[in-house]
Design brief:
The protein is of the alpha/beta class. Helices cover about 30% and strands about 20% of the residues. The strands form four sheets. An eleven-stranded mixed β-sheet has the order 7-6-14-8-9-13-10-12-11-15-16, with helices on both faces. The protein binds zinc ion (ZN) (2 copies) and fe (iii) ion.
């Protein structure tokens, strides 16, 4: 940009990610280097600057503000106005001022390379200190109580900086200038090692060594990390991993691993450039990686049973670095909770809730303000896609379109599973961290706290609540108790809108939303939907022929029930002609019972869900009859495709009303099964059929932009094949990147749904 300036004095307002990232010292150094005078401070909206001097230098100042800004910062908006000259005689960094609280908060950042060098340097005063950090790294969102981001507003307020730390903190040329969590072994947080009774066994470095020793001996150690406690066991100790599974009541769901370094990851997993970048990024998520064929046989097979992928991350705090450097083996590192509960953040709570899971506790005295699980990401079609947004990514802010900034404040309460909430406030949407499954009482409490907490940070008071149309979701029930204007948003429409925001896309689009189940209309559960979204409206234009969920929700845990109802709909004799592995899942009397229930149309709900179709086919193929976690059978079906390359697909048909008839496909699957074709081949053909259905409907609708959203599009085979086929047919496919395609994205979609609803109403008036 070119600025023609005649004024010699300017006031500059900057918003975006400009706090806690070394932005003010950057401004300070820039102004000093250019010989300009004035000041900079943190405002509640961002950063405010008054600067005066030579017009040419001022021009350079404005340009460099935007071209040389610190790596972790992001400027969303910069405005400057001439002001009366004051006659400053130096440039200084001033105290923060209060105002409207709208500045985006920075997520927690993994340890930077400078801090890392220090903690492994015996001559450095932070040698082996587990809480070293600086302006470029360390805790942020996990320690903030309120804005602006200054030490007294964080959980570091109880730690008084020693003279040396204070000097660093006050020196604009130091890496720790205004690093709010700045700490050292003299003045900062410390470790203790405790038993289940809460007795302190050792402190400081000895605590770390004792924890290392315990892990080596196969103990389960609960470690207070950045956004909560993690349960840690040795990744090469089968017995320890089994013990963890039993105590955590988690029989099958894969555990994540933390590796000491990239080299060791590369020995076990395929890592391409993008995956490497993601693993070593400041966000340091768990990255889903493909296991190598010759991966380390030392790795406990119980970590991810029957799974060709591993969820892998690198150490992201000095504490993790110190542990892993000493142990030099991969560790299982999983959120510390019982299944479905939120992650523990408080030591008393940890001793109480984890007392039957963990043998020992490695704890520190820096309070964690809010729970943040480890985030999960994977590369889909050469781009990063987040499956769970939490530590390192939350909170997330997305600028609203300019014409929506005068909107009433909206709270969106999200879905039921994988819940997140979002708020629309001033010119931004803020998305919370992953909260979880609301049917768990503690998670529902965490949901309530997150609403208070995220709202509290921004002094946000909602006037409107957007919620799922499902009346039974606890999030919807919460909305109904709030005495505010409510806007229900249909689940799959919300999925599509979340993908629109993720891609900064304008309608019209053809949205394809496939997931487990969501509340639809006419008492059916939707989940295999093709929705046309126009500038002002939306319409369901195609869907899968509904089928019965035998026993309703029960069939989610037991895909074999779905298999029975699909086959019954084909008029297969359930007593005589079932595929053998499926037949073996039932006793004779059970089969007679289910046959009668199906024939008499008792005890079922109807669904058009593709996720459930996956489950049913998985069971018919003998892959997954029962599941212990959501998506397990469908994932197993996806994994089966890995051994086959084929573009073949099955027949399907469409009714006049564009209802997709899956029956011809299922008949052909049974034939292939009878002819002993490989499960892998049948599975690939099944996936390909779904992709061809997408292409066929896209051609019928003729909308260029096609959105792929919903939990089913976490399936790598499905989404990558759909992208390729749509491109080949000259469509422009869009999928998810920053916002999860699963129900973690629903709250953001609800916000846009509410905005669209409000503007539709306004335009009618
Ligand atoms: Zn650092
Ligand atoms: Zn200190
Ligand atoms: Fe969904």
């Amino acid at each position: 940009m070119n600025y023609q300036l005649i004024d010699q004095s300017l006031e500059i307002n900057i918003t975006g990610l400009v706090q806690g990232v070394g932005f003010r010292p950057f401004v300070y150094r820039l102004a000093r280097n250019l010989g300009l005078n004035g000041w900079v401070n943190n405002s509640a909206e961002g950063v405010l600057i008054q600067v005066e001097g030579n017009p040419e230098k001022l021009t350079q100042f404005l340009t460099k503000l935007q071209s040389e800004n610190p790596p972790r910062s992001r400027i969303d908006f910069l405005e400057f106005n001439p002001i009366e000259s004051i006659g400053y005689d130096n440039f200084e960094i001033r105290e923060s001022i209060n105002g409207d609280k709208t500045t985006p908060i920075l997520p927690d950042l993994s340890t930077c390379s400078d801090c890392l060098k220090e903690i492994f340097d015996p001559h450095n005063r932070r040698y082996h200190y587990p809480f070293a950090n600086c302006t470029n790294c360390g805790p942020r969102y996990s320690i903030i109580h309120s804005l602006p981001y200054d030490r007294p507003n964080t959980s570091m307020k109880g730690f008084v900086m020693c003279a040396e730390c204070q000097t660093e903190y006050e020196n604009p040329c130091d890496r720790r200038f205004h690093a709010q969590p700045n700490a050292c072994p003299i003045c900062g947080p410390q470790l203790t090692f405790q038993n289940r009774q809460g007795e302190i066994l050792s402190i400081k470095n000895q605590a770390l060594l004792d924890a290392i020793n315990a892990i080596q001996q196969g103990k389960i150690v609960a470690i207070k990390g950045l956004g909560g406690f993690q349960l840690i066991v040795s990744g090469i100790d089968s017995i320890a991993v089994q013990k963890l599974r039993e105590r955590k009541h988690r029989p099958d769901k894969p555990f994540a691993l933390m590796y000491p370094n990239l080299n060791l990851i590369q020995q076990d997993c395929e890592v391409d450039d993008l995956e490497e970048k993601l693993l070593t990024s400041p966000e340091a998520p768990i990255v889903i990686l493909k296991k190598k064929h010759d991966y380390s046989q030392n790795l406990a097979p119980e970590i991810a049973p029957d799974n060709p992928y591993l969820g892998v991350m690198l150490p992201y705090t000095p504490l993790h670095h110190l542990l892993l450097a000493k142990l030099n083996i991969p560790l299982v590192a999983t959120s510390a909770n019982l299944s479905d509960e939120p992650i523990c953040i408080d030591e008393k709570d940890a001793l109480f809730r984890l007392g039957n899971i963990a043998d020992l506790f490695l704890i520190h005295n820096r309070p964690i303000v809010r729970p943040l699980d480890d985030s999960i990401a994977r590369i889909i079609n050469h781009q990063e896609t987040l499956l769970r947004r939490a530590r390192g990514y939350a909170p997330f802010s997305i600028p609203l379109a300019p014409n929506t900034s005068d909107l009433s404040p909206i709270l969106a309460v999200g879905s039921h599973l994988k819940n997140t909430i979002a708020i629309a406030h001033y010119q931004n949407i803020y998305l919370s961290q992953h909260i979880g499954d609301l049917s768990n009482k503690l998670t529902y409490e965490a949901f309530n706290q997150t609403i208070e907490n995220l709202g509290g940070l921004y002094e946000f008071k909602p006037q409107i609540i957007a919620h799922d149309a499902h009346p039974d979701y606890l999030s919807s029930q919460y909305a109904h108790t709030q005495n505010l204007e409510l806007i229900p948003i249909q689940h799959h429409y919300a999925h599509i809108l979340s993908c629109l925001i993720d891609n900064q896309l304008e309608p019209p689009v053809l949205g394809i939303a496939w997931d487990g189940t969501g509340y639809g209309a006419n008492d059916t559960l939707w989940g295999g939907e093709f929705i046309h979204v126009t500038q002002t409206n939306w319409q369901r234009i195609a869907y899968f022929q509904p089928f019965k969920l035998l026993g309703g929700e029960k069939s989610v845990k037991e895909p074999k029930r779905i298999a029975l109802s699909l086959l019954a709909q084909l008029e297969i004799n359930l007593l005589e002609n079932l595929p053998i592995t499926l037949k073996n899942q039932f006793t004779k009397s059970e089969l007679i019972l289910f046959k009668n229930i199906l024939a008499k149309n008792l005890n079922y709900s109807l669904t058009s869900s593709v996720g459930r179709l996956f489950d049913g086919v998985s069971s018919i193929l003998g892959i997954g009859h029962q599941v212990s976690f959501e998506g397990q059978a469908a994932m197993a079906l996806e994994f089966a495709t890995l051994d086959t390359k084929t573009d073949e697909f099955y027949d399907f048909s469409l009714t006049q009303n564009k209802i997709i008839q899956w029956q011809p496909m299922l008949t052909a699957i049974l034939e292939d099964l009878n002819n002993n074709l490989s499960i892998s081949f049948i599975s690939a053909k099944f996936h390909n059929t779904l992709v061809e259905i997408i292409v066929a409907i896209a051609k019928l609708v003729g909308e260029k932009k096609v959105i792929l959203t919903g939990g089913c599009f976490q399936n790598l085979y499905l989404v990558e094949k759909a992208i390729a086929r749509l491109k080949a047919e000259n469509f422009v496919p869009y999928w998810h990147h920053q916002i999860p395609s699963n129900d973690g994205g629903i709250s953001v979609g609800q916000i846009l749904g509410a905005i669209r609803e409000i503007s539709r109403k306004n335009s009618k008036m």
